Amino acid sequence: MYPTSDRPGWRDNFPFWTVHAVAIVGAIIVGWSWAALGWLVGSYLVRMFAITGGYHRYFAHRTYKTGRVFQLILALLAMSSAQQGVLWWAAHHRNHHKFSDEPEDTHSPVQRGFWWSHFLWILAPRNRATDLEKIKDFAKYPELRWLDRHDLLIAVAWGFVIYFIGGSTALFYGHFLSIVVAWHITFCINSLAHVWGGRRYATNDESRNNAVLAVLTLGEGWHNNHHHYQRSARQGFYWWEIDVTFYVLKVLEKLRIVSDVQGVPRHVRDDDVSNERARLTAAVAAPPS
Ligand SMILES: [Zn+2]
Ligand SMILES: [Zn+2]
After folding, report:
1. Model pTM above 0.85
2. Per-residue pLDDT reduced to its tens digit, 175-200
3. Which residue of 22, 114, 197, 259 could cross-link 208, Cys pair, CB 3.0 to 4.6 Å?
4. 214 alpha carbon to ligand 1 midpoint, in Å?
């Protein structure tokens, strides 16, 4: 049983499960069509890019640079996915890297179990606030602080915009169902990507590389790579490690919308598990005198 500060109350649970119910019931009532599929996939792709390329690789890790207008656009697009505010998301994620799979980690499946890491941590009262100290570099922008305080308003406003563009099909498939699908696939990086997959690098956590998650999340499934070297905007370190977010960032760089897109240095990339083993073997063979 979780301590009181970790137990979600009725008020915290209600919007979360209501969105699930509205998405499923609404999608059934509106019915399946090619337009519905287009809204679902199109909206999912835009939102997932904004989460991975915006919330994660830009706001949490600063792996590339961009101007104040495009950072605002990224934040607005990402907030359409109802994953709370831009500063909240990035600050909590920085905490995850600081304490990866240690007791202080916000959402470690190793420490607190799978469902805690998947979504229960988000509903816990103790994780509701944004710790601006952890995200001072972006908290200095008043527009981002305003967005962060009005996350629900932004998500609801997005619902209206999508409804006025495409009607009920767009609302239920392009907004509600897309939110639920994007939630659980994003959550999988906190839960499954610390449990299921290979470990190329001997990082101090349980992060994994997982091709299935990488395809679904536009590149975030190379999570062990990412824990090994967080400064890279590229999480698929080799050409066969599909990382759609990185490809989009490279296009945006060509268009001069973003700049300084960080790659992974070769010596960091090649510092894999076999090298780690070789070093350990050498250390055992020749202990320091
Ligand atoms: Zn990260
Ligand atoms: Zn992680």
Report:
1. yes
2. 999 999 999 999 999 999 999 999 99
3. 197
4. 14
